[in-house]
Design brief:
Strand order of the largest sheet of chain B: 1-2-3-4
Number of helices of chain B: 1
Strand content of chain A: 15-25%
Shape of chain B: globular
Order of helices and strands of chain A: EEEHEHHEHEEHEHH
Number of domains of chain B: 2
CATH topology of chain A: Rossmann fold
Strand content of chain B: 35-45%
Strand order of the largest sheet of chain A: 1-2-4-3-5-6-7-8
Radius of gyration of chain A: 17 Å
CATH class of chain A: Alpha Beta
Oligomer: heterodimer
Number of strands of chain B: 4
Structural class of chain B: alpha+beta
Mean pLDDT of chain A: 95
Largest sheet of chain B: 4 strands, antiparallel
CATH superfamily of chain A: Alpha/Beta hydrolase fold, catalytic domain
Largest sheet of chain A: 8 strands, mixed
Number of helices of chain A: 7
Low-confidence stretches of chain A: 250-256
Number of domains of chain A: 1
Chain lengths: 256, 93
């Protein structure tokens, strides 16, 4: 039996405009080298499940940082801070991208980094992950888990905080993209997922999409009635295999 | 569904929050992903005092059916209560 160990803690990170905020960071203990992953939380906020997901990736040999995207509305509990952000119409895309960039730099600065960084997001964070793949050419792999509003059919939903539908920026994607979706989801619905895939295919992007019957939005989340264990198990396996393939080092495979 | 759609209503009242009773002047109402409820979507209401910065809140997350039932019962309670008080006021005149 091999000894396993992990460190998971709240840390400070430098994000958009140099602002210093809090993040949850989990990593295996050891010398590495390991790649890193930025995990972008869902719209309700920086909650317990997001931290569980962060630790899960670390368990599989992927040091993972989850920035609290709403920290500027603090101090306060993540749910109260999230309520303020919701009332204010969400966080600006530009600010989120700045925070993701700061986390990528943090990961690559670690002495055990292999230099590769992936990004994954859930719900609104899935959209942010797609947007990050369009924004940063140095992302090595991106995972969009049921990100809504990648396609914006009602242009009135575009505003100063979210000025561009990510689908319009797809040409800029340089990394492999994994997408996981529930066929019963309303946002993104099946048609929107199909249309997103059509754009990726047309532009010759390296992508793989997986659709799950009997699942809707947030089917990974064991704290919700939406949880679908079989689909979630398969989906997690696909996420981990995808990161190991595209961020791979021998050490990653060994840690898993 | 990550809509960021929030209905805002001004109101007059009080609510009991983590630090005791507070005056409230606003309710933010939305139907979206909740933080605590296990539901996929919930009707959320945040009672806040916006005039004082809105930092504290009293929050509920309800199922859609629960929220509709609550609306009916609020209206029923208002109707019966106002009628009862009007009757009492008339009888004591």
């Amino acid at each position: 039996m091999s000894y396993e160990s992990m460190l998971a803690e709240t840390i400070a990170f430098r994000g958009h405009n140099g602002d210093v905020g809090e993040a949850y960071y989990a990593r295996p203990l050891g010398a590495g080298p390991w790649p890193g992953v930025v995990l972008i939380h869902h719209m309700p906020g920086w909650d317990e499940w997001i931290k569980e997901a962060t630790r899960k990736l670390a368990h599989h040999g992927l040091p993972t940082i989850s920035p609290h995207l709403y920290f500027r509305e603090g101090p306060g509990s993540p749910d109260d801070v999230g309520a303020r952000v919701r009332a204010a119409g969400g966080v600006p895309d530009e600010q989120v991208m700045g925070d993701v960039k700061g986390c990528m730099e943090f990961l690559r600065a670690q002495p055990y980094s292999n230099g590769k960084v992936g990004v994954i997001g859930f719900c609104s964070g899935g959209r942010h992950a797609y947007l990050a793949a369009c924004t940063f050419p140095d992302i090595d792999a991106a995972v969009d888990c049921w990100g809504g509003n990648v396609i914006v059919d009602d242009k009135k939903q575009l505003n100063a905080k979210r000025p561009v539908a990510p689908i319009e920026l797809t040409e800029r994607i340089r990394c492999p993209l994994l997408g996981l979706f529930g066929n019963d989801d309303e946002n993104p619905n099946r048609d929107q997922v199909n249309r997103t895939e059509a754009v990726l295919k047309k532009l010759g992007k390296d992508y793989e999409f997986h659709r799950y019957d009997g699942a809707g939005h947030a089917f990974f989340n064991a704290s919700r009635l939406a949880y679908r264990p079989e689909q979630a198990l398969d989906g997690w396996n696909k996420v981990i295999a995808f990161f190991q393939k595209h961020l791979a080092t021998a050490a990653v495979a060994r840690a898993a | 569904m990550c809509s960021y759609i929030v209905e805002k209503v001004k109101l007059l009242g009080s609510a009991k929050g983590p630090n005791g009773w507070m005056r409230i002047d606003t309710a933010n109402v939305y139907y979206d992903h909740p933080f605590h409820s296990p539901l996929d979507h919930a009707l959320g209401i945040d009672f806040i005092n916006e005039a004082e910065g809105g930092r504290e809140r009293v929050a509920v997350e309800l199922s859609a059916d629960s929220a509709r039932c609550l609306v009916e019962k609020i209206l029923a309670a208002l109707a019966s209560g106002e009628m009862a008080h009007a009757t009492t006021a008339g009888a004591t005149r």
